[in-house]
């Protein structure tokens, strides 16, 4: 099923290079499939030209290749760094002669262009998925492909079609100046115009979830967390006392105290970030790892105080943290 806005954007893409800027789930890939179908006369065998669909990750390459293969009757092949990618002119010539849509990671295309395995003028349609990676001042393979191998003076430049859910890379998406700079950079590098659809039009045909924002008090400020913190501090002081009484070497005791401090700090961090249940699981995991360490040691080291004080602290911590958690 096609929506009106998808047909309109596909029609626009037939006329000029465009970058489709639509949110996740709005059918950008479906527009790309429509475009491949409309330009199918340029890539159907025995023609030598092909469509190349670029996706920045291997899972996306596999996903998009499956979508295209299931939606059309074109010969689709995928390429990524699995060791099976063609490595010479002869192998690539065979692939180009047999395949009509080649889905690959951008590094594969960049390498193939650099070694003349693939030539830009043999690409009828070049699609960039998640094209926001293509920024003028970046060395992402998307940017390198366009800067090094594409120009408007080519006798037969490929049609460019970009897709993105956000044209802004990294932080600063809400900054209007940065937003405008990223849009301009994308358009300049891909030689394309950014196109989108009004939210009102999307809402009339797509189902969006109703969003509710609930603000929670940080866990570190809750009464239960404060209580647990005090109990853990008390257990740490008790374990420190046991450690000082059992060790007479000052340097050794200082080293062990620091180790206990790090262990305590990790548990407190888990308590504040994950709550009492998360901290309890962390304490159990720490105890299990120390038990494993002991099993790996020589028999002469089994009664080493370096683990006894940690066991004491962790057992106390588990007792404290599990006091208000229901079984199961």
From TrEMBL:
<dbReference type="GO" id="GO:0003676">
    <property type="term" value="F:nucleic acid binding"/>
</dbReference>
<protein>
    <recommendedName>
        <fullName>Helicase ATP-binding domain-containing protein</fullName>
    </recommendedName>
</protein>
<dbReference type="GO" id="GO:0005524">
    <property type="term" value="F:ATP binding"/>
</dbReference>
<dbReference type="InterPro" id="IPR011545">
    <property type="entry name" value="DEAD/DEAH_box_helicase_dom"/>
</dbReference>
<dbReference type="InterPro" id="IPR027417">
    <property type="entry name" value="P-loop_NTPase"/>
</dbReference>
<dbReference type="GO" id="GO:0005737">
    <property type="term" value="C:cytoplasm"/>
</dbReference>
<dbReference type="InterPro" id="IPR014001">
    <property type="entry name" value="Helicase_ATP-bd"/>
</dbReference>
<dbReference type="InterPro" id="IPR051363">
    <property type="entry name" value="RLR_Helicase"/>
</dbReference>
<feature type="domain" description="Helicase ATP-binding">
    <location>
        <begin position="9"/>
        <end position="185"/>
    </location>
</feature>
<dbReference type="Pfam" id="PF00270">
    <property type="entry name" value="DEAD"/>
</dbReference>
């Amino acid at each position: 099923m096609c929506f009106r806005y998808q047909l309109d954007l596909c029609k626009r893409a037939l006329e000029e290079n465009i970058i489709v800027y639509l949110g996740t789930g709005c059918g950008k890939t479906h527009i790309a499939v429509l475009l491949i179908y409309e330009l199918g006369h340029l890539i159907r065998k025995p023609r030598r030209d092909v469509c190349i669909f670029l996706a920045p990750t291997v899972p996306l390459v596999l996903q998009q290749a499956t979508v295209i293969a299931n939606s059309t009757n074109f010969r689709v092949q995928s390429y990524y760094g699995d060791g099976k990618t063609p490595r010479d002119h002869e192998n690539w010539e065979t692939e180009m002669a047999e395949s009509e849509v080649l889905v690959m990671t951008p590094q594969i295309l960049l390498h193939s262009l650099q070694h003349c395995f693939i030539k830009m003028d043999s690409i009828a349609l070049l699609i960039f998925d998640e094209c926001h990676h293509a920024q003028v001042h970046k060395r992402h393979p998307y940017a390198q492909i366009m800067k090094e191998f594409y120009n408007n003076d080519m006798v037969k430049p490929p049609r460019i079609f970009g897709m993105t859910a956000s044209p802004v890379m990294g932080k600063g998406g809400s900054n209007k100046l940065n937003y405008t700079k990223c849009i301009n950079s994308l358009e300049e590098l891909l030689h394309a115009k950014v196109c989108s659809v009004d939210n009102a039009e999307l809402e009339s045909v797509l189902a969006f979830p109703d969003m509710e924002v609930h603000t929670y008090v940080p866990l570190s400020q809750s009464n239960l967390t404060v209580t647990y913190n005090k109990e853990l501090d008390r257990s740490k002081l008790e374990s420190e006392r046991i450690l000082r009484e059992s060790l007479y070497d000052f340097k050794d005791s200082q080293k062990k105290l620091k180790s206990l401090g790090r262990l305590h700090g990790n548990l407190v961090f888990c308590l504040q970030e994950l709550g009492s249940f998360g901290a309890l699981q962390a304490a159990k995991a720490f105890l299990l790892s120390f038990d494993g360490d002991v099993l790996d040691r020589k028999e002469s080291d089994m009664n080493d105080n370096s683990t006894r004080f940690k066991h004491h602290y962790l057992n106390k911590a588990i007792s404290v943290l599990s006091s208000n958690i229901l079984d199961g």
